[in-house]
UniProtKB/TrEMBL annotation:
<dbReference type="InterPro" id="IPR000014">
    <property type="entry name" value="PAS"/>
</dbReference>
<dbReference type="GO" id="GO:0006355">
    <property type="term" value="P:regulation of DNA-templated transcription"/>
</dbReference>
<feature type="transmembrane region" description="Helical">
    <location>
        <begin position="180"/>
        <end position="201"/>
    </location>
</feature>
<keyword id="KW-0808">Transferase</keyword>
<feature type="transmembrane region" description="Helical">
    <location>
        <begin position="69"/>
        <end position="91"/>
    </location>
</feature>
<feature type="domain" description="PAS">
    <location>
        <begin position="345"/>
        <end position="416"/>
    </location>
</feature>
<keyword id="KW-0547">Nucleotide-binding</keyword>
<dbReference type="Pfam" id="PF00989">
    <property type="entry name" value="PAS"/>
</dbReference>
<keyword id="KW-0902">Two-component regulatory system</keyword>
<dbReference type="Pfam" id="PF02518">
    <property type="entry name" value="HATPase_c"/>
</dbReference>
<dbReference type="InterPro" id="IPR036890">
    <property type="entry name" value="HATPase_C_sf"/>
</dbReference>
<dbReference type="InterPro" id="IPR005467">
    <property type="entry name" value="His_kinase_dom"/>
</dbReference>
<dbReference type="InterPro" id="IPR050351">
    <property type="entry name" value="BphY/WalK/GraS-like"/>
</dbReference>
<dbReference type="InterPro" id="IPR003594">
    <property type="entry name" value="HATPase_dom"/>
</dbReference>
<feature type="domain" description="Histidine kinase">
    <location>
        <begin position="484"/>
        <end position="685"/>
    </location>
</feature>
<keyword id="KW-0472">Membrane</keyword>
<dbReference type="InterPro" id="IPR013767">
    <property type="entry name" value="PAS_fold"/>
</dbReference>
Length: 696
């Protein structure tokens, strides 16, 4: 009897399985270089178990007959384990998650354990296989497989076919020329064909040849078509848009979604990237991910290009993964555009503020500066960073000014009031005192709708300061001059009028008349001085308006008019109430107009006073039937202008115009059959027009 290694057939079988086992083991180091850890584990497991199976088959032919049965069983266990490793590899390589499914893994473990137990206990039940010593073509134990073997083998072939189906499906979906890789994969099925032939003919030993196919697939994949192996897996996973490049930056593969984005990819396999897609190639020079713009039916579309490398031994491919980031990129572009617009508006606002105000600042609810405009340094000497976080008292000139500032701020923060303050003292960094006109308004929580805001939603105050130092200095000088002139004029006029009275009493005829004219001129100058005093007293009063019933005001004026002009005849058409948005000092303006009408319409003046109320205004009409107001006086009352001033009869009408217009009112004059003066005052927003009931 010839031993296997002494016959050509034996040497052929030993060599076939030995080379198969060695080929699998030699491929292991390269398999360990696969970047994807799950694919790596599946491939390493497949090669290891298949290699062991082939080496055990080699040992089967050279071992004594007494050991061949045991060696065959161990080889079968390795081979059955290779089936599960193949499924794990196929699932991971094709991007599926079957290999992660805990239920499937448990079922696989149970099936493997059952089959393994049946194989190990075969010497007892002999249902898996039986052996017969053969001498042709050499001495060995022939394996006669039983029912359990065919059940196990059928399961193995079904599982192997499932893995093959997953891989071939991946090849089809990749859209890539997978012919070389497909041929290698198809060779996995070659041993099955050999097994069937061995059953039908005595020329071949009935000996499972599956390790040969796995070895051909593994060695060919890892050493011959490694780039294609990596490229196919990358381009066919899911709906990802990918472009695969080889080491020379030529397009090796691309996924269908990538072709949808870049129609230029059609037929571009093997073309340098910078020739086919120069815009994409330009991003390769950058270290970080880049965004590329493409025209779309709904406008520009944007794709994030994320490069990564995949290696397997000395095979390396570069994968450009394209992610559609159109929505986020459009939002980013909109934000950039909005920021540019805001920057432009902010620059415009800054210019307006710089031109209109000395500086602008914000105060929080703890009375500390939370923002200060850069222009503050020119006004106070403090840089913005010196004031931010500091209390407002840092700019207080004295305790009184600090107290007033806190009171003003309390009205804004606690009551939601918008305030205006004239000439508030501010201490500079150098210790000097400057003056500012201040306007302050509350700042509300932005998330609260304006219709729902209350004082609880106030988070700070916006304050604008206009430099009033020069005006205050100028007005102070004028005030001093006015006081000095009024004092001296009144004193001197008192002396003049006293002597004029005495002369008028002592003289007769033309001399007495001249003394009376001196006395009248002196009285006129005294009236001018008094009007100037009254104008100055009103200059510093707050312009804030409030609801005021005009009817009682006019009633008081009529009483005063009757006392001073007992011969006057006054007719009125006045409602019971007439609420105007004004201030009590409107009484001064009305009196000046009434007094002017009574003085210049004869010894028994006739005056009509009508009051009409509408939704938007209170109209007060004062009409006399005198000679008519001179043009110069009309100009004073209607426009506040008098040029030259000495042409006017006095400052009373100027004072009336100044008060009315400062209280958001209007005044107009008509001189048909006497003089008619119309004063229009605004009504409060909530005021409802009353039913008028005239009273005479």
């Amino acid at each position: 009897m010839s031993v296997p290694w002494a016959t050509p057939a034996g040497i052929a079988y030993i060599g076939l399985f030995f080379l198969t086992g060695v080929g699998c083991m030699v491929s292991l180091p390269r398999a360990w270089t696969v970047a994807d850890i799950e694919v790596r584990y599946g491939l390493v497991g497949l090669l290891s178990l298949t290699g062991l199976w082939a080496l055990f088959k080699t040992a089967f032919f050279i071992a004594p007959l007494s050991l061949q049965s045991a060696i065959y069983i161990i080889g079968l266990i390795s081979g059955f384990g290779a089936v599960w490793a193949w499924l794990y590899f196929a699932s991971a390589y094709t991007g599926r998650s079957l290999h992660k499914n805990s239920t499937l893994r448990r079922l696989g473990g149970v099936a493997f354990l059952i089959i393994t137990v049946l194989k190990l206990t075969n010497p007892v039940h002999k249902q898996y296989f039986t052996t017969t010593e053969m001498t042709t073509p050499f001495r060995y134990l022939a394996i006669e497989h039983g029912l359990v073997h065919w059940v196990s083998t059928s399961l193995s072939y079904v599982l192997a076919t499932i893995g093959l189906f997953m891989i071939f499906e991946l090849y089809v979906e990749s859209g890539y020329d997978t012919t070389p890789l497909g041929v290698l994969t198809a060779l996995l099925a070659l041993p099955v064909t050999i097994d069937l032939i061995a059953i039908a003919t005595p020329q071949l030993i009935e000996f499972i040849y599956a390790p040969v196919g796995v070895a051909i697939f593994a060695v060919g994949t890892l050493f011959i078509v490694g780039d294609q192996f990596l490229a196919v897996r990358t381009t066919a996973q899911g709906d990802a848009a990918t472009i695969v490049l080889d080491e020379t930056e030529r397009i090796q593969a691309y996924s269908p979604p990538a072709a949808d984005i870049f129609p230029e990819l059609d037929g571009a396999t093997g073309t340098p990237l910078d020739d086919a897609l120069p815009a994409v190639a330009a991003t390769e020079d950058k270290d970080a991910d880049q965004v590329i713009e493409r025209d779309g039916s709904d406008g520009p579309r944007y794709y994030l290009i994320s490069p990564r490398s995949m290696t397997m031994g000395d095979s390396t491919v570069r994968v450009l993964a394209l992610s559609d980031v159109t929505e986020s990129e459009r939002q980013r572009h909109n934000l950039i555009q909005r920021k540019r617009e805001l920057d432009k508006q902010n620059e415009l606002y800054r210019a307006i503020i710089s031109a209109s105000f000395a500086f602008v600042f914000q105060i929080d609810t703890e009375a500390r500066f939370s923002f200060v405009s850069p222009s503050v340094e020119d006004f106070t000497g403090y840089r913005p960073d010196m004031l931010n976080g500091e209390p407002i008292s840092i700019l207080g000139s004295d305790e009184q000014a600090i107290k007033e500032a806190r009171d003003y701020l309390a009205r804004v923060l606690n009551d939601g009031e918008a305030i205006q303050v004239r000439g508030h003292p501010i201490e500079t960094r150098s210790g000097n005192t400057v003056y500012g006109d201040i306007r302050a308004e509350p700042i509300y929580e932005p998330s609260v709708a304006s219709s729902a805001r209350t004082t609880e939603n106030i988070i700070g105050a916006q304050v604008m300061v206009r430099d009033a130092s020069e005006r205050r200095q100028r007005e102070g000088l004028i005030s001093v001059i006015n006081r000095v002139l009024r004092h001296n004029v009144r004193n001197k006029l008192t002396v003049i009028n006293g002597h004029a009275k005495m002369l008028a009493a002592d003289l007769d005829g033309d001399s007495a008349s001249k003394a009376d004219r001196i006395l009248n001129a002196g009285n006129h100058l005294l009236n001018l001085s008094e009007s100037a005093r009254r104008i100055e007293s009103h200059r510093e009063l707050s312009p804030k308006l409030e609801p005021l019933d005009i009817v009682p005001v006019i009633s008081e004026l009529l009483t005063q008019l009757n006392e001073e002009y007992s011969g006057a005849s006054v007719a009125t058409d006045i409602p019971e109430t007439a609420i105007a948005e004004t201030q009590p000092r409107i009484e001064t303006a009305l009196w000046e107009i009434l007094d002017n009408a009574a003085q210049h319409t004869g010894s028994e003046p006739t005056i009509d006073i009508d009051v009409t109320v509408t939704d938007k205004q209170v109209l007060i009409r004062i009409r006399d039937y005198g000679p008519g107001l001179p043009e110069t006086e009309q100009k004073v009352l209607a426009t506040g202008e008098e040029d030259p001033l000495v042409h006017g009869q006095g400052l009373g009408l100027f004072l009336a115009h100044w008060i009315i217009t400062n209280l958001d009112g209007e005044v107009s004059v008509a001189t048909t059959r006497g003089t008619s003066v119309d004063i229009r005052l605004p009504t409060p927003p909530e005021t409802v027009t009353p039913e008028t009931q005239p009273q005479n």
